[in-house]
Design brief:
Four Helix Bundle (Hemerythrin (Met), subunit A), 2 domains, about 85% helix, elongated, Perm_prefix_1, membrane, transmembrane helix, transmembrane
């Protein structure tokens, strides 16, 4: 195993997070080190000397790893925010009578304080979740040009997405149960159209937190 291979293995171990994000960064680092090694070799250095010089120029693992970790975390956060936006878009259609799930919930809505309170809360939670997701997506996608974006932003994005992904299905299912008209078909529809998509958001958020 060459010195570059050992370096890349150490760098991989120092960067947590989704494998797809790390893979791209490590590939770029490997390509850069390979080009630098070839340049030094053409200049007359031995392979071992060329690798040592390329690694010296690139920087020690403990020096560059924090920057790589920020990049991985922001990439994971951007993916989580985008997924939350995509999941939130059809939720208004789902609950405002666009399909049977929303129509059933409203047509059999019990006249109780709890149901009306949950109906109000899910509206606020959904709106806040969608707005937060859009802001997080903008910050992690283009905000890096003007703002200091790092793992703190990634953690906040992941926490916001995870909270939304847990709250909306929980409140939604509770409202459906309170209607007293929950059927197997309705439950399966809610799982497919609400629980499953938000579960993907929660999983992505957990991976983002792991990258931080």
């Amino acid at each position: 195993m060459s010195a570059v291979d050992v370096y890349l293995a150490d760098l991989r171990a120092a960067i947590p997070g989704p494998s797809w994000t790390r893979r791209d960064l490590l590939r770029e680092a490997g390509d850069h080190l390979e080009d630098a090694t070839e340049a030094y070799t053409r200049a007359g250095y031995t392979t071992a000397e060329a690798e040592a010089l390329a690694l010296r120029d690139f920087g020690a693992v403990d020096v560059i790893a924090p920057g790589f970790r920020d990049t991985v975390a922001i990439g994971a956060a951007r993916r989580t925010a985008a997924l939350l936006v995509l999941v939130m878009i059809p939720q208004a259609f789902l609950w405002d009578g666009g399909i049977d799930l929303g129509a059933t919930a409203h047509s059999t809505a019990p006249d109780t304080g709890l149901f009306h309170a949950l109906d109000l809360v899910i509206g606020y939670v959904g709106t806040a979740g969608a707005i937060g997701a859009v802001i997080a997506l903008a910050a992690t996608a283009i905000g890096q040009r003007w703002l200091r974006i790092g793992r703190r932003t990634a953690r906040l994005t992941a926490a916001w997405s995870l909270a939304t992904a847990m709250a909306v299905p929980l409140i939604g299912f509770t409202m459906l149960v309170l209607t007293g008209g929950l059927t197997v078909t309705l439950a399966l529809s809610a799982i497919a159209l609400m629980a499953a998509p938000f579960a993907l958001v929660a999983l992505s958020a957990q991976r983002t937190l792991a990258a931080c």
